[in-house]
Amino acid sequence: MIGRARGVAAARLRDPAMDLALRDGLSFCITSGEPVFLDLPADRYFCLGADTRDAFLGLIDGQTDPRAVDTLVELGLLVRRAGYPIAPANVQSPIRSLVEDAGPLRLRHLPRAAYRTTRTAAGLRLRGLPRAVGRIRRRKARIAARAGTASAAEIARAHESLALITASLDKCLWRSLAIAHHLLDRRLSPDLVLGVHLRPFKAHCWVQLGDTLVNDRIETVRAFAPILVV
């Protein structure tokens, strides 16, 4: 399901006179034929009613019905702005998992893993998801990332072991934020991915380095469509 959006990876409007973009802070995916949105500033997910859904799906398929456009702008989903594609969130399909290929635990990574986990959990409770995501974005923008996943495998193993000790394996959000910060400490540039699926609705979060999953299993993340990639 990763990277699929009605066969469209990045749809642009065909009429250049009607350039549109998603409102700032809004991202979306298409799963089970439905557009699902994340309003990051409001920290909420939502779907659309039938008429609005059809208008939005038509729009990303290149059908620029002026009435549909006006409706989507009035609802605050879109803004009129030139030069920006309306595109679903997208990330490389993972072909390898560091969790599944876990090596021996290197104790030297445990103190940093514990520090990052404690600090991230507290920050998420105090400041919320929007600021936590913003901090990851700023840190990624500042570093000159280096390649390689050797140290990432050791970091993944340390965080997995810590989660077993603290019984926090189901805390995917703050565990993923903590691992992302730990990787950034080592000048690696991870992708923090938030994904969803419908019927029933469920959200999930994981970390990737390119096509390599850092803290999850391939079969698990395949059930989710990425809705935000940081």
UniProtKB/TrEMBL annotation:
Residues 121-228 form the Microcin J25-processing protein McjB C-terminal domain. InterPro entries: McjB-like, McjB_C. This is Lasso peptide biosynthesis B2 protein. It comes from Sphingomonas canadensis. The lineage of its organism: Bacteria, Pseudomonadati, Pseudomonadota, Alphaproteobacteria, Sphingomonadales.
